Structure formats: C-alpha cells, structure tokens
Give the backbone structure.
Amino acid sequence: MGKKVLGIYGSPRKNGSTDLLLDKVMEGARSAGADTSVIYVRDLKIAGCIECGSCGETGECLIKDDMGLVYKLLDQADVIFLASPIFFYGLTSQAKAVVDRVQAKWSKRMIEKTPEQRKIHIRGKGYLIAVGATTGKRLFDGVELTARFFFDALDMSYKGGLFFRRIEKPADITKQPDVLQKAFAFGRNAATEE
C-alpha cells in the first residue's frame, strides 16, 4: 500500500493557480500509488489560536471547530503538501490559521518527548507549494520558514517545495505546461521517496 498523502489547499480562491498546482501534485502522488486526502481550508470554519495555554498542559486544543477534522488527517499523513499563494510575503489567513492551531501538536511533542528526541522527526515529510505575482528576491523566505516550523510541530521533516513567481491568475499557470509537469513530477517523487 502506498503512502498516505495529504494536500492542504490554503487559497481562498477556488480553482486558482495554487489549486491547479496542488491538483497536479496530488495527481502525481496518486500515480505513484499514494492514498490521498485533501483539505480545502476555505470551506472550513477554523478559529485562530487564542493563546490560552491549555494545549501546553494537555497537548490538545480546547477550541471545538473544523480543526478537529484537520488534526485527524494531519495525524494520519506520511506526506503533507501545504499550498498557499503569497499575500504580503506571507501565507493566506486561511492557511495561517491551520499553522497557528498546530501549536497543540507542538505542545504535545514538548510534553511527550525529550529535547534529544525532538531533534529527530519520525512522522514523515512535509513540502510547501507557493506562488506569487511579484518577482521579489525574498518572496518565499517568510513562508518557507513558517512551513519549516509547521512541519517540525507535526514531527515531520521539511523537505523543500515548489515556488513560482509571476503567477497571479489561473491562466498564467495554464500557459506554462512545464510548471504543471514539474508539479506532477514533484508529487510523484514525494510519494515514492524514502
């Protein structure tokens, strides 16, 4: 049986460039025999972290909303793709809400593992897919750092990502078949890599 691969669609826009790229990545993963699941964050009701500190004691978030479903899928995945367009050099607010609520998973790691154990990621691998309309040299620096710590909280290794500049409209992606081919190959490779 193939790996369990989760795609997190972090764009507020349905069928936009980010969705099209992640669709191709997930198609590539399925072609390698992966068992895939997806989360469209825009369709969920997820509150922001309220920094109550409860998860620091229990390892569980006390907020009851759609993040409960997300936690289950995160726990089951061997490979996770987090996808987001760039908004002001950062993740969308929808994607960032998921990232912030993973504080509970970080707290659980802190409770259950020693500092030495936390240096090794045993749960799997995480990847970032990001697109931006501008050409800024440091366009992806912030989101990549955020992704690294998001996956660390999930006890997963951050393995890099796919990053594309000068993409604003879905038509921008469809005019570049090499981009979609890269996305397909990226998903396939991630699903087969040991």
In short: The chain has one domain: 4-192.
